[in-house]
Amino acid sequence: VYFRGNTVVWDMFRAHTSDDIKKLAKSSQVTLAVIPGGLTSVLQPLDVCLNKPFKDRVRKKWHEWMSSGQPRLTKVGNLMKPDIELIAKWVRDAWEEIPEGMVQRAFKKCGISNAMDGREDSALYEDSSDD
Fold this sequence. Notes:
5 helices, mainly alpha, extended, 2 strands, single chain, DDE_SF_endonuclease_dom
């Protein structure tokens, strides 16, 4: 692990809280923040602010591909899946379209990267659906 002095925020999935992971985090100077069960939708930046716009962008790319005439049919008439390379490109492009400010606001809204002096506490209550 090459990260030093970072924080990883994740849910209580068993693999995230194993002794091996805790040891690795400690040796790498990574702080682990585990979101208690039932609070992922409140405290996980991806769930709170980022998953929907990201998935909307990927879905848009799928629809554009579908309407472009590129999809082909199998011998029995079923739609062929897009190549994995194309799907990976959609994912990469969709993520690159997410504004950096949206990512920053997501972490602030979840109270993860707010200023310690309290001056950014109002971010917890701001509506992030405008993005």
